């Protein structure tokens, strides 16, 4: 268990001791998306300050109530949520639309200034936040309180990788090396992980590992459709260790896979998983899940053969969600969509990733990702500026008092 996690538990158990900390009293507002939670935890851990984790349970009607009353707690089930009560924090770190109203309610209700740091894309006005830590796919404007990072925040630190490698290496020692990790996401926007995509990925990953005489370490996620898992496993023809994600799994080898892998294949729709893979500084191959004719399956199928040569497979892969997304992307407001292709292009340009089937260009290895540290510096600056202001105010008051005493002493009796 990390030092920060221990601190968070101590703070939750003894809230009366929180004001004694020399660091800003920090709350971390956990949401319902694993990627968002990983980012805000990465920032909280990077700050090195004790923090308290808050879990909120939302009503089915939260969207309506949050739109009509954005500064209330009508959208949450308070009896099932973490308590939101004094002592109020100095800093709240959050992500996701659902968490914005409670954070702003706390800021309005607190008897001191509470700084709001939001990760990702806020739905309220940017001016409502002290800092927004965002990434290119959201296409936010340039503002003094917006930090534009290259990739999402991530928690893949060297020590965590070393610990995971030591834990999982003996369990995977029976598999031939080199290892290729295959990390599966799921459906998102114009990207679909259906049986056909999973079959192609299974065959392509098997061919990739087979050429090296190695094996696959395959991890699904909460978003991976069951039919896709079955199709992928049926397509495998090389040694593999497969982890089927469940919410009650005793252990999750995901970090161990990243630590032990020599190469990593990731489905392209998850920016968090892509970033975590790139944080290892190992070769990362993106598998395209796009349902349109512009997907990159042609190169793979030229290497391993078509999964389905029939002319109508393109129509079979049509889905309602991708069609709606493409329509919204063309005619809707920017805040309603995200363009992850921007990050794809950035990762390729920096030499961190290529599309599966392509080869890495020759050149120097990319430097480690520094987005977490950039965010940490900006958050700490919020409190450094406040400390400077308080010091100037106190100095001014002392100078005025001193001047008054001098004038009083100099005045004729």
Description:
- The protein has 413 residues and is of the alpha/beta class.
- The chain folds into two domains: 3-154, Rossmann fold (3-Layer(aba) Sandwich); 158-355, Rossmann fold.
- It is built from 14 helices and twelve strands.
- It has helices spanning 3-13, 34-47, 62-68, 100-109, 158-172, 195-212, 226-235, 254-260, 271-279, 297-304, 313-316, 320-331, 341-349, 371-410, and strands at 26-30, 51-55, 91-95, 115-119, 131-134, 146-148, 179-183, 215-219, 240-243, 263-267, 284-287, 353-355.
- The strands form two sheets. The chain has a six-stranded parallel β-sheet with strand order 2-1-3-4-5-6, sandwiched between helices. The chain has a six-stranded parallel β-sheet with strand order 9-8-7-10-11-12, sandwiched between helices.
- Strand 8 (215-219), helix 7 and strand 9 (240-243) form a beta-alpha-beta unit.
- Helix 2 (34-47) crosses helix 14 and helix 6 (195-212) crosses helix 10 (297-304).
- The longest helix is centred in the last third of the chain and has 40 residues, at 371-410.
- The chain is elongated.
- The N and C termini lie far apart (70 Å).
- The model is unreliable at 1-18 (pLDDT under 50).
CATH architecture of the largest domain: 3-Layer(aba) Sandwich
The SSE order reads HEHEHEHEEEHEHEHEHEHEHHHHEH
CATH topology-level name of the largest domain: Rossmann fold
Radius of gyration, in Å, reads 25 Å
